[in-house]
Amino acid sequence: MLWYLFKRILQLIPVFLGATLLVYFLVFMLPGDPLAALCGEKGCTPGVAAALTEKYHLDDPFLVQYVNYLGGLFTGDLGVNFSGREIGSILENAFPVTARLAIEALVFEGIFGVIFGLYAGLKRGKLFDSTVLVISLIVIAIPIFVLAFMLQFFVGVRLGLAKPTVSGTAGWGELILPAVVLGLVSFAYVLRLTRTSVAENANADYVRTATAKGLTRGRVIRVHILRNSMIPVATFLGADLGALMGGAVVTEGIFNVPGIGSQLYKALTLGDAPTVVSIVSIMVLIFCVANLLVDLLYAWLDPRIRYA
Amino acid sequence: MRFSRISTFASVAAISVLALSGCGGGTAGGGETDSSAIITADSVEPQNPLVPTNTSENGGGVVVGSIFSGLIAYDEDGKPQNDLADSIDSDDNQNWTIKIKKDKKFTNGEPVTAQSFVDSWNYGAAVKNAQSGANFFSPIEGYDDVSKEGSEEDKMSGLQVVDDNTFTVKLKSPQSDFNLRLGYSAYVPMPESAFKDMKAFGENPVGYGPYKMAKEGAWQHNTQIDLVKNDDYDGPQKAKNGGVTFKLYQNPDTAYQDLLANNLDVLQQIPTSALGNYKDDLGDRSLDEPYAGNQTIAIPYYLKNWSGEAGKLRRQALSMAIDRDEVIKVILNGTRKPATDMTAPVLEGYKDDVKNSENTKFDKDKAKELWEQAEKIQPYDTSEKFTVAYNADAGGHKKWVDAVTNQIKNNLGIEAEGKSYSTFKEVRTDATSGKLTGAVRSGWLGDYPSLYNFMEPTYTKGANSNDSKYDNPEFEKKLDEGLQAKDKNAANKAFQEADSMLLEDLPAIPLWYQQANMGWSESVSNVKASWNGTPMYFDVEKSS
């Protein structure tokens, strides 16, 4: 088990290097000159343009820029973005906010998705099941920004139950509405996955055995049906963490959450490679770790799975 | 927190019920005006540290404009009023003597002296500091030495301190509107402490103005910037409220939602998506006023079809083939005013009927006729399709570009379409490097209220924003004539003539003048738009 863990962590290194190289290259290849963005609508004088080019090393070839960036990274210096701010301090401020948002969304979709899915799966074909299926289909079909604007307008503006935007501190309470929006589509998927999986396992031989053994209905459902149905759901949730962080770009924009989404978007439009790479690499790392956790979870969910 | 956790079920149900019943909420404000109440206003994260000479975009501009006052301030109509200046005099428009008021202090207690101005201007001009506003110091003698690539110099020979309250400015050549420029934010003074550590200063700027930063770290990045009233400010823009909190939005639609929920007091510009219904939403809590800005389509001269004598005729034909009223009415909800020249209406000296302004009037038949004439000189090369480039990442340009190109297509019978670039950066790269394959959306937002400012940066040879690469010595001579003029009227007359020359050649096709569409909440009043379209925050009154 420990050896397996060690191997997996070792794998993170090439993944990290590959991801940073690829992302840096892609940003570098984006059309347009970052200088044009830096100079803005009204342009800069040739002298200023030259000074900015030197300051941000815009003239260096790709590999030189990348190696410089990596060098800085290993000494703990991520450099500055195009506004002259330390990228490190930007990440320090923005990441916890996005993390709170993603965790809330994950908890929301995980808990509610599993509960609704379990109930629907046990009562399949009944009214609740059909209703839930139809509604989840609708939710999946509607683009996330439409859902966001709808909920923002009705819950935030019309009903006044929550503020339409999040304040600077972006505490757990304020993030509930954006998190629900962010997790809504995945919630529908989790629900459907759980339902299908539960419906399948409910007819399995070991469930019949367990029931015949005289176990209570509750224990059969919790330990035998639900736990065995969790494997596809756990896989989905693990992979979804990455999607949530990506989806946060849209949701954060609409609810004005000061997370990494807006930073990433701005850096991309400016062609600010160091900032984009720093943000994306952390997302990649989180994604890898989440998947590792899911893999470890398999062994706990299904004792037949062993790692060596 | 008044938020109750709602299951998806309940919220979906609630939404459908609400949608059907059209249920509305909202609280009424009212009460006495409270001069210590803090207003909230929308803005975006400033692109650069808040150094006045390095702030050229709106996000930083509104903050810098609130905490730094210069020699003069512009009133609602763009008329200059003395602020820090006691007098600004010149006999020849080339040698200026500037006296400043005595005993003014920056908000950290340092005195505002003639030296503060000279140091700030030198700092802004020196290329080693790479300030985006450097260009504003280019008329001053000695600018060329400090702005040369790689120059380490940082003292312009044209600036001399006479005593604590007087300094002189020697320009390279006479500039009749030099005094009018001095209200632009690049010309404000910075305290001595700024130059010791500009990086720290950019985070926590200190100036002399209607407001000051609320405290160390009042700029909470990407979230908000807190300003409070500067009680020691004694000028024409004294604040009638206790401060401004700029909430930094990522998305203009979001700010509008906040305004509807009375969660935001002043909204600078109603987002495009709400232009159709904001009057219903806000009623008399909105305004719609022209400001010093315009929208044009610049057509580069390096395109084969659009140069020479035939090109000129085609440009005129194109301009007459656009029904500006129609586009404004249908696409822009009537929120713009058709342009009849290259400048903007709120400026002193603006005339809506300068010579050749008929080239901006819709006339399908005349357009066709001019086009035919051009055909005789040089046939239109159909392999070079007419496109109008725009950036799709902001601003909602697609709709009007499509409408305008459609009109061109229908009225002139040529292929015309919009060309979308995914980012602003890409359009600007092609435009500045002269690699456009068609026309580009362009325009100007005034830095200071002068006709000259609308023509020099956009249509003179080698200027930063000359997208069409227009080069006309006659026109530049006319501009110079205006700059050298002895009095304002003579200057404006020369500028009008220069304007007419542009309207004949049409390096860019003027489309419309911009209008400020502001909205405000139920708790504030007295919201006005300044000459350049930003709210005059200091005048806003909030009730408790």
UniProtKB/TrEMBL annotation, chain A:
- InterPro entries on file: BPD_transp_1_N (IPR045621), MetI-like (IPR000515), MetI-like_sf (IPR035906)
Question: Which Gene3D superfamilies does this one have?
Answer: MetI-like (1.10.3720.10)
| Keyword Hydrolase carried by entry | no
Q: How does it sit in the membrane?
A: Multi-pass membrane protein
One Pfam family it belongs to: BPD_transp_1
Query: CDD domains, from UniProt?
Result: TM_PBP2 (cd06261)
Q: Which UniProt keywords apply?
A: Cell membrane, Membrane, Transmembrane, Transmembrane helix, Transport
| UniProt subcellular location | Cell membrane
The UniProt record lists the ABC transmembrane type-1 domain at 95-298
Quick one: where is this thing mainly located? Answer: membrane
Question: What transmembrane ranges does the database entry give?
Answer: 12-30, 101-120, 132-155, 175-191, 231-255, 275-301
A GO cellular component annotation here is: plasma membrane
A single GO BP term for this record reads:
transmembrane transport
Q: Which family does it belong to?
A: Belongs to the binding-protein-dependent transport system permease family.
Q: What is this protein called?
A: ABC transporter permease subunit
Instruction: Tell me which species this is from.
Output: Rothia koreensis
TrEMBL record, chain B:
Could you list this entry's UniProt keywords, alphabetically sorted. Answer: Signal
Q: Which GO terms describe its molecular function?
A: peptide transmembrane transporter activity
Against Pfam families, the record matches this protein to: SBP_bac_5
Q: Where is the signal peptide?
A: 1-28
Name-wise, this protein is ABC transporter substrate-binding protein
**GO BP terms:** peptide transport
Coiled-coil intervals, chain numbering: none
Transmembrane regions: none
Key word Signal present in the record?
Answer: yes
Domain Solute-binding protein family, chain residue ranges per copy: 79-465
GO cellular component terms listed in the entry, alphabetical order: ATP-binding cassette (ABC) transporter complex; periplasmic space
**What species is given as this protein's source?**
Rothia koreensis
